[in-house]
Amino acid sequence: MTQRLLLSDRTLQQLLAARGSRLLATGMCLVMLSACTLSPNYQRPETPAQASFKYAEGWTQATPSDALARGAWWELYGDSLLNDLVAQLNANNQTVAQYEAQYRQAQALVRSARGSLFPSIDLSAGKTRSSQGTGSSSSSLSNNSSGIRDTYNTQLGVSWEADLWGKLREGLAANQASAEASLADMAAIRLSLQSELVQNYLQLRVLDEQKRLLEATVEAYQRSLTMTENQYRAGVSGKDAVAQAQTQLKSTQADLIDLVWQRAQLENAIAVLLGKAPSEFALAATERIPALPEVPLALPSQLLERRPDIASAERKVMSANASIGVAKAAYFPDLSLSLSGGYSSSSFNDWISLPNRFWSVGPQLAVTLFDGGKRAAEVDRTEAVYDQTVAQYRQTVLDGFREVENYLVQLKVYEDEAQVRNEALASARESLRLTNNQYKAGLIGYLDVVNVQATALSNERSVLTLLQGRLVASVQLIAALGGGWDTEAAFSPQP
After folding, report:
1. Which of 63, 126, 185, 310 maximizes the CB count within 10 A of its CB?
2. How far is residue 365's CA from residue 471's CA, in Å, rounded to a whole number?
3. 441-469 pLDDT, tens per residue?
4. What is the pTM assigned to this prediction?
5. CA-CA-CA-CA dihedral for 459, 461, 466, 467, to nearest 10
6. From the record, what ranges are coiled-coil (predicted)?
């Protein structure tokens, strides 16, 4: 008898071991299946290779990477007020705030997609009052003569979808790539707005210098008019000289007035970039134009890698690639496991008691057998979206190369032009000095002086306009490079 009992125990142990092995094997199969994904292996799309730029030495082709640091590139202009304005933009600009909110939305979608990988637990409790007819055939089933019955229920349920084909994980990967693209979009818009602010500020400072030049010129022309009127009253010069002096003075005064609205427009644009109403913001004039930064002769290609628009375009390709796997997973069955249990009773007093318990457990396999081509159309759509994002990524890279080339050649041409215009300005100033001396000596008429003065003023303003163009082009080049050309910062990761 004892021996038979021992054999029964061993048999039971063997049965349990066999069942455990089957459960373990089943679990391992589920794990292995859950490692499957149906999206294509991601590879960065090929882009046109460019080993160097035509107008800069030291450039090599590299891989986009916006994780490299940019630094406070606006500090290259050495203006403390400009530094403060950029800090205000970073903190208060409403467009940046919009993109920041979009990024938080994308982060929330990532957390939601990650949560779908885990089981969900639900708890419910409630009371139900129901009524049933009290005819002769069913009156014995009712404990209440009115046919009304109260039912108390409490239930705890656990459900989990096994990610056999990678649908959930590919959805998570797509959301993660979209969130990273959103972050890059926010960096791109911030860089663009910073560039716009710095350009507006530099143009405003050049206008301040233009205003000082015209004010000094108006004072000089006023003295010339007074002297010409005195000569006319003394009979030394004719009425035509007075008319020329008045024309020259009034034209310059009109140019000076014209600068007022130009400066106001730039000032109002800066106010909006700072998140302020134009009526609440004002920039006092200064007597200094920020220095033009010197562009290095050799620049590492890693600088172009930091462009956030290129990073955003590539991450959108990654998101589209993962979405293909989600669409293909719809062809395969979904496996969900559920477990529920609780208590149900018609009496509140003994509601939570052992006799009133109930439970259920089991898997559920669901697959769509026919959908009229809906899944195939969705796969085709996601593949078309992928092709679209690849083309957009390649175009963004090409646009980056084009912008850098344009601003490099623009700065080079401006530099050569500045040298010639400064020489022309020096000659115009010398000619004006000599002409004034001849006029004071009575050797020439005032008309000759007017022509030389107009030429000198035109050259003065042309030099300032060219300086404004060089400053703006330098900012545009910095933005095209992803934010500055600090080689030490370029190889440092973002904090």
Report:
1. 310
2. 66
3. 878 888 888 889 999 999 999 999 999 99
4. 0.79
5. 120
6. 82-116, 204-231
